[in-house]
Amino acid sequence: MTTRTAIDDAVESRQADGLEFLTEFLRIDTENPPGRNYREGAEFLREQLEAREYDVDVIDVPDEVVEEHYPNRTDHDRMNVLARLDEGREGPDVHFTGHYDVVPAGEDWATDPYEPTLEDGNLYARGSSDMKSGIAASVLAVDALRELGVPIEGSITQSMTVDEETGGFTGLGELVREGHISRENTDYCIYTECFDSSRICLGHRGVLKFRVVTHGEKAHGCMAHGGENAVMAMNDFLTRIGEYRETLHGRTTDEPVVPAASARADVSATMIDAGYSENVVPDRCTATFYRVLVPEESVDGAREELEALMAETEAATGARVGYEEIMFAEPALVSRDCTVAQTFAREIEPHHGPPEYVVSPGSDDQRFVVNDAGIEECIVYGPGLLEQAHVEDEYVPVEEVVTAAKVMAAATADLMGHLDG
Fold first, then answer.
1. The predicted structure's pLDDT at residue 139
2. Which residue spans traverse the membrane (predicted)?
């Protein structure tokens, strides 16, 4: 049997290797959109994992799947990495998964976002918290178990996927659709997204992104009576959205959403476009919206409510109102009493005390595992800091990566029956 102390020591002894892995990984600019350098990222991961004796597949996403979800980005290759350790013994499959795409770095960084900088124990780079550090921690955790000679009862799988930042459909969603992650081959799944090493994330709110288009009739501004102003029709709809938003704010959840102010449903108008010239009555106005669902809601229910608002605007203005859906993600939620959550809770406690159970304010790839693959034994646990996601001068504390790796290693040994005590 293996002790927690031995696991902690093994992680510490490999800390420099883990930091080198993460630093090299962060140097690869895998910005999404559009999906830059995915091939380079996948080949880096293949080399690293094959050197660790994993059986590795780099799985190209079919062109038709990319075309379906990202028709404007088909000139960028997309591929997911699937790696497996199996020593031929009976036991559970423990699956760690994370995405290796990052959001665009943007401007005004104090340092080069793709030349990692270590300062005061923090590693600065785009993707350091969200979420290449999660992938590095899970690799380091298994490295430590291998160094200790812990037998693999069942298998350990590591997957690294693309496009989470734009919906995940060609990433983890594609692995689930193709059966690489299913109830038949996966017993426990840990999605290593950034919530810090003291928290267990049980799920996330849902989201519905959509456009509404109001249609009118063009006319010269000096004879506006001859037209139908699509902007004014949109004004009517936006007024109704404002009233709807007040209703949604009263629709709260008791689930531990962080931050607490996000424990409610919401809708925001995020973009608007109309008009040709200052002297032309516009015949079309388009607005884009972001609807957030609490776990108790469904996307179908949200659609029905929006259809009712659109019908009210049509009746009040006489304008035709159209709906264009951009994407949706149903809420996802698992029980804090599930085996994987309770196992990680036991291993977090020696480092942080009792863990905080949380629910994410935004959607992520956990939904594909829980909702589509039907795997209830799936949590989110990773070292990155939620407040560092998508910001300038993003960083991850190195100690967070080390602590998360210790927890992941001990939990894996525990799930496979090799942890003393």
1. 98
2. none
Distance of alpha carbon 329 from alpha carbon 176, whole angstroms: 15
Query: What is the enclosing helix (H) or strand (E) of 189?
Result: strand 188-191
Regarding beta strands 155-161 and 93-99, do their DSSP bridges make them parallel or antiparallel, or are they unpaired? Answer: parallel
Tokens read off for 6? 């031995």
Q: What is the DSSP string of 267-305?
A: EEEEEEEE-S-TTEE-SEEEEEEEEEE-TT--HHHHHHH
Which amino acid, 383?
A: P
- State the Cα–Cα distance between residues 216 and 214, nearest whole angstrom: 7
Q: 195 near 201, Cβ under 8 Å?
A: yes
Q: Which residue has the tokens 């160094």?
A: 147
What's the confidence (pLDDT) of residue 324? 97
Query: What 3-state class would DSSP assign to 57?
Result: strand
DSSP states of 112-130 as a string? -TTS-EEETTEEESTTIII
Residues 6+ positions from 342 with CB-CB distance below 8 Å: 336
Q: How far apart are CA 249 and CA 55, in angstroms?
A: 49
Q: Tell me if residue 331 falls in helix, strand or coil.
A: coil
| Residue 225: other Cβ atoms inside 10 A | 7
Per-residue pLDDT band for 107 (boundaries 50, 70, 90) equals very high
pLDDT per position as a tens digit, 358-367: 999 999 999 9
Residue 314 tokens, joined: 């049509």
Q: Round to whole Å and give the CA distance between 214 and 277.
A: 18
Cβ partners under 8 Å of residue 47, min gap 6: none
Per-residue pLDDT at 37 exceeds 80: yes
Radius of gyration of the chain, Cα coordinates, nearest whole angstrom? 24
The residue to which tokens 């380091």 are assigned: 140
What structural domains does the chain harbor?
4-204+331-415 (3.40.630.10), 206-329 (3.30.70.360)
Can you name the residues that pair with 4 across neighbouring β-strands?
none
Residue-wise pLDDT for 265-320, tens only, equals: 999 999 999 999 999 999 999 999 999 999 999 999 999 999 999 999 999 999 99
Q: How confident is the model at residue 99 (pLDDT cuts 50, 70, 90)?
A: very high
**In the chain, what is the straight-line distance between the N-terminal and C-terminal CA atoms, in Å?**
9
Residue whose C-alpha is closest to residue 405's, from 1, 7, 3: 7
